[in-house]
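# step 3/5: fold
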Amino acid sequence: RFTVFPGSDADVIGAPDELRVEPSLPGAVRDELAALGHRIVVQPDLGAGGSAQLISVDDRGVLTGAADPRQEGVALGVE
């Protein structure tokens, strides 16, 4: 996971640009991004921010849900 900082929140506009990544991003990829001019900041495990809750529907109409562990949340499907 990665996030671009600062976002659009008023309290961080104008802060130095960072590409925040989780440590699971391979070091070689981090090195390549840094070589392209990105300021890389490694965050704690599951700490790069953001989250997603997903629901998929298969061909039979079965709902499958998953919640990202980065934040509290739950995926709910109601038919």
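# step 4/5: annotate
The chain has a mean pLDDT of 85.
# step 5/5: archive (pending)
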